[in-house]
Design goal:
The chain has 119 residues and is mainly beta. The chain has no helices and eleven strands. Strands 2, 4, 5, 6, 9, 10 and 11 form a seven-stranded mixed sheet that branches. It has a four-stranded antiparallel sheet with strand order 1-3-8-7, with no helix packed on it. Strand 4 and strand 5 form a beta hairpin. The radius of gyration is 13 Å and the shape is globular.
């Protein structure tokens, strides 16, 4: 069983930066991919960025390309999301997730961390 704990959310002005961190523990040997998702009020949860755990290949949603960077520290079992040039529309609860296969299934989720970008 993998546990995920996010940190690093907060309030920032438009144009600013934040870095989210997700620490994974318990059964991390089984992780194939990790990702960040977000959910704004009244909207569905959407994918932000994904990283393949073993080789580090990445995927980004079009809305964050060039502004966000996902990375991982395999030795510490941490995945990071560096968010630059933040916009008010980036405001959401951000969730870390882990999957054990290359399918679209995500097996484990963190509790979420709030990111608020003021205009």
């Amino acid at each position: 069983q993998v546990q995920l704990v996010e940190s690093g959310g907060g309030l920032v002005q438009a144009g600013g930066s934040l870095r989210l961190s997700c620490a994974a523990s318990g059964g991390t040997y089984s992780i194939y991919k990790m990702g960040w998702f977000r959910q704004a009020p009244g909207l569905e949860r959407e994918v932000v960025a994904i990283i393949r755990w073993s080789v580090g290949t990445t995927y980004y949603a079009d809305s964050v390309k060039g502004r966000f960077t996902i990375s991982r520290d395999s030795a510490k079992n941490i995945v990071l999301l560096q968010m630059n040039s933040l916009k008010p529309e980036d405001t959401a609860v951000y969730y870390c997730a882990a999957g054990q296969s290359p399918t679209l299934v995500w097996d484990y989720w963190g509790q979420g961390t709030q990111v608020t970008v003021s205009s």
